[in-house]
Amino acid sequence: MFDPNGFIAEAVADLRAHVMGKAIIAASGGVDSTTAAVLASRALGENLLAVFVDTGLMRKGEVNDVAQTLKEMGVHHKIVDAREEFFTALREVEDPEKKRVIIGNKFIDIFEREARPFGAEYLVQGTIAPDWIESGGQLRDRIKTHHNVAGLPEVMHLTLAEPLRDLYKDEVRKVARALGLRVAERQPFPGPALAVRCLGEVTAEKIEIVRGACAIVEEEIEAAAKAGTMALPWQYFAVVLPVRTVGVHGDVRAYGWTVAVRAIESVDGMSGRYAKMPHEVLDRISTRITNELPNVTRVVYDVSNKPPATIEWE
Asked: Model pTM?
């Protein structure tokens, strides 16, 4: 049986033994990176700098929330505004694998840039087992390029340290609970962020749509779960499709985007089944999205399991 307290002691000791000097950690605010950040902070103290990169692709309120979490946990951190860099790098890119590689390379560029003045030679990441399993290698087929694994550049000037590499999501949550992290139950969020929930080319318009749609999905599902109407799924979000359809706003013809809602039940992220949400919850989500996001004319619900689908659309 997995022992989270035993793992914490082992991980902290291992980081102290192998990280010889200063390190930075890629902090996204999710359960994986936050757990890794606290473990590394315990091991390295002032020799660790947590770097949160504001890509412009984050969820609503994410930047302030991450800063507050790192502050609460006493982790030395810095926020880097790289919104323009990411949108420029992703311009006219539609292929999801290319997006992931571009994002992975851009992250490393920024981390190496931030590491130099701090004097860091190591990069700590919150990589977990499904990341490298799905990224392929050896006899494994590549399902998708995780930006923090196969999306890394061939040449790096920082040495990687990945304390959670052999854990699955349910085990990471146990470690986070043992550490007292308020993000322990937070639903998973992809490293490339909303870029892989914006199918096709990433544009400012589509990112604003999917950011708003994701917020509505989260708010309505969490409210329904709190009211006892439904159980809280493992993961739930929206994507904006590269499909425009005819609709009606008032008595006027509209030609807007299509949003897909996704909610899935899983334990470790390796497999899952779509959540059978009450129709009244779907109705509220659809009504709010089309009312509050005027560029959206159609909302659909994804009833695909994993496999054959993956949890995220890209």
From this structure: 0.82
